Known about the structure:
About 60% of the residues lie in helices and about 0% in strands. By secondary structure, the protein is mostly helical. It has five helices and no strands.
Amino acid sequence: MTALQSALAAEHAAVYGYGVVGGRIGGRRRAEARAAYDAHRARRDALVREVRDLGGEPVAASAAYALPFQVPDAATAVRLAARLEERVAGVYSDLVRAATGERRGTAAGALREAAVRAVRWSGESVAFPGLAERTVVGTGADDTGAAGPRGSASGAP
C-alpha cells in the first residue's frame, strides 16, 4: 500500500506541476502539456479508486508544492515537465517492484508512459527509466534541494 500511496502522491504533484507548466509553456507545445496533464489526472483518479478499493484512505493532494526551480518562461516549463515525468517514472518503478499481477502490469505501463514523456520533453533518454541509481543525472531531492515524490509523501514536484 505504501508504494501505491507514493504513486498517488506523485500523481497529485504532477497534476499541480503541469498546472505551472501550462501557464508558461509556449503555444507550440501546449497540446502536449495538456495531454500529459490529462494523463496524470486520469492516473491519479484511478489510484484514488484503487486505494479505496483496498480499504485505505487515499493520500490527499497538498494545496501547493515546492517546485525544484523557478519557472519564469517556456524553456524552464519544458525542463519542469521533464523533471515531473522523471520523478513519476521513479515512483512507478518502486510500485513495479512492490506489486504483483495486474497492478504490476499497470504500474509498468505508467512507468513506460512517464519515461516516453520525459524523453519527449528533455530530448534525452536513460537506459533504465525510473531507476535514479542507473541515471547519469539524479532526479530526486539530491540534485534540486527540493523534496520530490520519492522523498516524501507530499510528492512535491
